[in-house]
């Protein structure tokens, strides 16, 4: 089993061999879905690169048994993901990037609330899937940090440390779905993360996009969305479930998404 460096507030442990999760007493969760290198290669800078066969494992709809009915009624879903250690050629282990589909529940593309449990993460996001990607951000996050992706934005999660697996949880809309068309059309996200000889992440512009504003930063303070630093997002849900109503119904916090800075 992999060690967690932040307590997520529910009894769940990631495993490496095979990649996946062990659910403790009183916790429900599905068998993991594996994303293989061949599944994401088209979105990489070098589609023919070498790397782990299974890049990451994902379990959608995890939680405590006592909350199962409430989560369904709120249209809220908790997902957990663990990444392999290693590299994809000179690129870090990462997801390919997507936009959330428009949910029939809200008629919005929904936001996502990430929480890092172990490893080092970069949550990359850009405003648009068009030739002009708009504002682009790389948010560097460590265990215990929360990062929020706003509605309609392309985003990808990147493991910044090739020597350690990355594990995180996230609140999502229950009718989640991923749209990859814009990313695939542009052969990936607008800025490729690559390792230099010191295993430091550097960023290379994707020539399939127009040149764009790009900001590297630490996570914002999300107090205006009810998020408290240092408290797990699952514990926040336990204490006040309505905190995360904005995930399946982003229109309730519509003013927050205007000029949003993650």
UniProtKB/TrEMBL annotation:
Domain of life according to the entry: Bacteria
Alphabetical UniProt keywords: Gluconeogenesis, Glycolysis, Isomerase
Pathway: Carbohydrate degradation; glycolysis; D-glyceraldehyde 3-phosphate and glycerone phosphate from D-glucose: step 2/4
A GO molecular-function annotation: glucose-6-phosphate isomerase activity
EC class name: isomerase
GO cellular component: cytoplasm
Catalytic activity: alpha-D-glucose 6-phosphate = beta-D-fructose 6-phosphate
GO BP term, pick one: gluconeogenesis
EC code(s) of this entry: 5.3.1.9
InterPro entries, sorted: G6P_isomerase_prok, RmlC-like_jellyroll, RmlC_Cupin_sf
Family label: Belongs to the archaeal-type GPI family.
Name used for this protein in its record: glucose-6-phosphate isomerase
Species of provenance: Parabacteroides merdae
UniProt lineage: Bacteria, Pseudomonadati, Bacteroidota, Bacteroidia, Bacteroidales
């Amino acid at each position: 089993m992999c060690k967690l460096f932040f307590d997520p507030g529910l009894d769940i442990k990631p495993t490496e061999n095979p990649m996946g999760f062990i659910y403790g007493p009183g916790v429900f969760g599905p068998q993991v879905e594996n994303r293989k290198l061949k599944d994401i290669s088209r979105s990489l800078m070098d589609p023919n690169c070498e790397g782990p066969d299974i890049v990451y494992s994902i379990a959608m709809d995890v939680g405590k048994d006592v909350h199962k009915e409430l989560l369904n009624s709120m249209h809220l879903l908790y997902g957990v993901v663990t990444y392999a250690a290693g590299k994809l050629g000179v690129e870090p282990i990462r997801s390919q990037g997507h936009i959330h589909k428009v949910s029939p529940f809200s008629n919005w593309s929904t936001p996502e609330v990430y929480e890092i449990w172990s490893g080092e993460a970069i949550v990359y996001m850009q405003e648009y899937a068009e030739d002009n990607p708009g504002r682009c951000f790389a948010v560097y996050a460590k265990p215990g940090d929360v990062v929020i992706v706003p509605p309609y934005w392309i985003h990808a999660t990147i493991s910044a440390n090739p020597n350690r697996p990355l594990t995180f949880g996230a609140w999502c809309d229950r009718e989640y779905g991923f749209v990859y068309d814009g990313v695939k059309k542009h052969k990936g996200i607008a800025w490729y993360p690559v390792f230099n000889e010191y295993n430091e992440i550097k960023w290379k512009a994707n020539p399939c996009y127009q040149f764009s504003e790009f900001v590297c930063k630490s996570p914002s303070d999300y107090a205006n969305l009810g998020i408290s630093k240092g408290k797990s997002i699952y514990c926040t849900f336990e204490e006040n479930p309505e905190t995360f109503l904005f995930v399946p119904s982003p229109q309730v916090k519509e003013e927050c998404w205007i000029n949003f800075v993650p």
